[in-house]
Each structure stands twice: as C-alpha cells, then as structure tokens.
Model the fold of this input.
Amino acid sequence: MRLIAGIAGIIVVLAVLLDAFETVVLPRRVQRQFRITTWFYRHTWVPWRRFTSHIRSTGRRENFLGYFGPLSLIMLLMLWAAGLIFGFALLQFGAGEHVQLSNEKITFGDLIYHSGETFFTLGYGDITPTSPVARALAVIEAGMGFGFLGTVIGYIPTIYSSFSRREVQISLLDARAGSPPTATELLGRVGSVVEQQVLDQCFRDWERWAAEVLETHISYPALSFFRSQHVNQSWLGALVTILDTTSLVIAGVDGLKKEQARLTFAMARHAVVDLAQLVNARYDPNQPDRLPALELERVRKDLTERGVRLSEGAAFEQKLTYLRSLYEPYAQSIARNLLITLPPWIRTESKRDNWQAGPWDRLIQAKNLAGLGQKAEFSARVDDHF
Done:
C-alpha cells in the first residue's frame, strides 16, 4: 500500500511540475493529449460561459467575463499548489515513520496537513518526520514552496505586462478605426491621406503587434481570456479589423500599393490561425456571411465619399472573397468560443469614438448650446476642431 502511494505521489508531483513548467517557462505551444492547465480551462470556462450567456445586458456580460481571466490565474496557481501538497503527502505516507506531539496515530489527513505546512514553510513542528527519506522529502517540499512563491511573483507581473502592451495598441486603434473598429473607418481615415507612407506605417505597427499577440498568447494562454478595457474593443476585434483592411487593399484600391498590406495580412492571418488552435476552436460551415453583397456596396459607397476608391469588377470581389476565406472561419470560431463580438465591416449606426465620450459631455453640451444658442451636436463641433 505504501509503495503504491509513493509511486502515485511521484506521478502527481512530476505531472504538476511539468505542467507548471510548460505553462510558465516553456515559450511554445505544447501538443499533448492531456495537460492539467488545458483540462482546468476547459472545465472552468465552459460553465462560466454558459452562465454568462444568460446575462442580457452587454455591459454586465462583458464585466462578468472580464473577471474570468485574472480569477483563472489565481485558481490555476491554487490547483498547482494543492496538487503538490497532495503529491508530497502521498510520498510522506509511502516513506512512513512520522511522530506527532500528542503521540496519536498519524492518519493520511494529518500527512496532508503536514505537507501543507511544509510547503508554505510554516514549520509548526507538531508533526515530525523521523526517517531519512521523510526528512529529505520535507526539505525538498519546503524548497519547492519557495520556488512556487517565486513563480507566482514572476508569472503574474509578466502576464499583466503582456496584457498592457496588447491593450496600448488596441487603444490607439480607437481614433484611427472607430469604436468598435471597422475596416471602412480605418481605410477611410488613414487610407485617404495623400502620403501612402502613413498607411504603410500603420500596417507595419500592426504587423508587429500581431506577432507580439501570437507570441505572448502562445506563451501565456490565459491572455486569451483577458478582456479589453472597453466593451466595444477586443484583441480579436482589432486583429480582424486589420485583416479586413489589408484584404481590401490587396484586392484592389486605386492608387494604393499592396506590398506592406500583404506582409501585414500574412502575419495577422498566421496569428488568428494559430490562436484558433490554442483556444480549441472548431470549424463551423454555417457561420453567417460577414460581408454580403449589399454590405459590400455600402462599404464601396462610403469609401468613395471619403476619397478611397475600390477596384471595380468581378476580379476584385473574387479576390476579396478568397482572402476572407483564409481567416474569417478561424476568427468566427474563436469569437464563438470566447464570446467575443466581431466588428462589422462598416458602422451600422452613427456613434462617437471612445475618446469623444465622457461622463460630463452632456452637461458641457447643454451649457455650450445654451451659451451659443445653437443646436449643433457637441461631437460634431469637436470633430471640426480636429
């Protein structure tokens, strides 16, 4: 019995250590049939997502979803700690020869308690290992507790540093592509500039951002569950907006070169395909079309009014359809798994960008209208100044 407990303890400890190493230290995606972290997220995210689907308010739903990412980190660390404590308790049971202060019989529950106080280096001394093997295990577990604390101290700040870098670029997209961001707004605002270097530089920045998102999300899969600061923003929405915009440029925009758009499209498509596998997204052939014919005509008309002319003819539409087929199924599957709303190709209604909205705007607007005697919208006057 003690031999079986010792073998089981070795398996549990090694499994937890391997999983923690692959999750925290190893900077690549691990493809294995069973992993503790993968099992954990599948069995916590699914019920969380089902419960969230019953919340009707979009704001409340996003707020509730925003708790999962940070909370899952704490729960995962607790699961690792519990696994190590249980594994060492099995090893101590296999090693035998412990003494309790009250000379009572040592039970397995007592050994779990002893393992816990050793792991967290409390050192009450009410249960003492007496055999050389049991003492060695106690020393190893205490050292592992220090290592675990160091992992926690280093892991969480690294996660939040990666999250912060991701969100900075998403925030910059607000004034360039609207809220939520759309390809029509981005191309209309930046693509209409006389110097194409402005658009190309924008694409270069987003090419690098897509590469960083791919690297950080593969290294730290929990980042996929971290929501953005605003309800109408997300890392997936930003990625899809860039893919939509570069698809239009590659398919054909009069007067715009395609070289940088191709490079950005390739990197962003790489990111969305790999991240779809990371979140266990599955292909659904019945996904709705994001850009039906009438919607494409609206995009064409809106861009023409802004001075950006899309190419005419069937060749443009065929190429655009092909490019969309390279990334939309993956993006839609990720969105379904993570409950993220993908941005449209064009705004369905007139809304102010996030930077234009503030808690005092209505009061300021009323004061200005009363002073000026005008009925113009406050947001329109702000746009005139810029």
